[in-house]
Design goal:
Number of domains: 2
Bound molecules: ligand LLP
CATH class of the largest domain: Alpha Beta
Structural class: alpha/beta
CATH architecture of the largest domain: Alpha-Beta Barrel
Radius of gyration: 22 Å
Distance between the termini: 36 Å
CATH superfamily of the largest domain: Alanine racemase
Helix content: 25-40%
Shape: elongated
Strand content: 25-35%
Oligomer: single chain
């Protein structure tokens, strides 16, 4: 994470959080441009020899300014809806660097993607292939598609974010993949350009990726199709706690290099979390502190509508004070949100820093699947997003006006 204490004060890079909170209503998301840039270059450097097209997965953070910054660094975009596609285009990502994934793209969404001549539409069913063919014929276009394979590989991650097992709704099953490819090859307004996989998210070991490459290699050889691109998806895990494991991208990159050499194809990656996950924090104010039996509840102005990962996946994000008190308070504390749901709780600690009502705290590592998963639940407005770039503070999304939801 990119937050550091200078004395007792919390800073994001060289900007004090407190100074930003003076001018902006909490809760708000805050991102470090530097961290995003560094993550992107770390990722690209690991795979330098493969020279892949890196398509930032827009679902992880769909702020147009961030997509645009990544575009300037050379990133393409992985999108899953009309909205994400339009955002990527507005962020000036060139269509030939955009891939469109998803199992349920509608006719309108496909039409837009076809008209814009994006690099690839990654299809997930024969019906989708037929629909793209029909639309392309009408528009007098030949559309480049990728076919998403379900490799039948368990990514050893949270079950709720696994996508490569045989019981998953994603991709075409291995068992009849070749037959489906043959059927799709007959469709005249399509060109099969890619095979794609994405086995899950927050993956911290290379083993499932290795298995996937093996499945892919065998299948590609059997298919005798010359795939121009192989889209290996995203899923690269990050440590949320200090002791947590990082994925060994060096080992994975060696495997990918060999794989690419054997197949002579262009590799595509779709990382989301790895690029933005540790580059963002959610700054929130303590509304009330309530002593309740054995637990002291620290009630924040940020709730599960602003940041839903803990409620949805039962995962923990550390919370740290913006002004670190020299005093420690003994006993159990629990950081919770104001929403009328028992799952609106973030994290529990024993013996935390002493805190008071109106103090600020930072929920850490929320750059990925934070803001993009937020909602208006309990009729609460979407919060502001702020980017720190070269010491300057830029509001990259204004807090939604309450009138917009009334
Ligand atoms: N490509 C495809 C086709 C995907 O479905 C995803 C994520 C990605 C790329 C990017 O995956 P990443 O590199 O960010 O792991 N909301 C969950 C994560 C859901 C991921 C969905 N698909 C969470 O907060 O953990």
């Amino acid at each position: 994470m990119t937050l550091i204490y200078k004395g007792q004060n919390l800073f994001l890079d060289s900007t004090s959080i407190n100074s930003i909170a003076k001018n902006n209503q909490t809760p708000f998301y805050i991102y470090s441009y530097k961290k995003i840039r560094d993550n992107f270059s770390i990722f690209s450097n690991y795979f330098k020899k493969t020279n892949p097209l890196v398509c930032f997965s827009v679902k992880s953070n769909s702020n147009i300014s961030l997509i645009s910054e990544l575009g300037k660094l050379g990133s393409g975009a992985d999108v899953v809806s009309e909205g994400e596609l339009l955002k990527a285009l507005k962020a000036k990502i060139r269509p030939n660097k955009i891939v469109f994934s998803g199992i349920g793209k509608t006719k309108n969404e496909l039409q837009l993607a076809i008209k814009k001549n994006i690099l690839l539409i990654n299809i997930e069913s024969e019906s989708e292939a037929k629909l793209i063919n029909k639309i392309s014929k009408k528009l007098k276009k030949i559309t480049s598609i990728g076919i998403r394979l379900n490799p039948g590989v368990d990514a050893n991650t949270l079950s709720k974010i696994s996508t490569g097992r045989t019981d998953s709704k994603f991709g075409l099953p291995k068992s009849n993949f070749l037959k489906l490819c043959r059927n799709i090859e007959k469709l005249k307004n399509l060109r099969i350009k890619a095979i794609s996989v994405h086995i899950g998210s927050q993956i911290t070991s290379v083993a499932p990726y290795r298995k996937t490459l093996n499945v892919l290699y065998k299948l590609i050889k059997l298919s005798k199709i010359n795939f121009k691109y192989i889209d290996l998806g995203g899923g690269f895990g990050i440590p949320y706690k200090k002791k947590e494991k990082k994925i060994n991208l060096k080992n994975y990159s060696t495997l990918v290099e060999k794989f690419q050499k054997k197949l002579n194809c262009k590799v595509i990656f779709e990382p989301g979390r790895f690029i933005v996950g540790n580059a963002g924090a959610l700054i929130s104010k303590i509304v009330f502190i309530k002593n309740s039996g054995k637990t002291k509840f620290i009630i924040l102005d940020a709730g599960m509508n602003d940041f839903v990962r803990p409620a949805l996946y039962d995962v923990k994000h550390d919370i740290i004070p913006v002004l670190k008190s020299k005093r420690k308070a003994k006993g159990n504390i629990e950081f919770v949100g104001p929403i009328c749901e028992s799952t609106d709780t973030f994290v529990k600690y024993k013996n935390f820093f002493s805190l008071n009502e109106n103090d600020l705290v930072a929920i850490t590592n929320v750059g990925a699947y934070g803001s993009s998963l937020s909602s208006n639940y309990n009729s609460r407005p979407l919060v502001a997003e702020i980017l720190i770039k070269s010491g300057k503070t830029k509001i990259i999304r204004k807090r939604q006006k309450i009138s917009a939801i009334i």
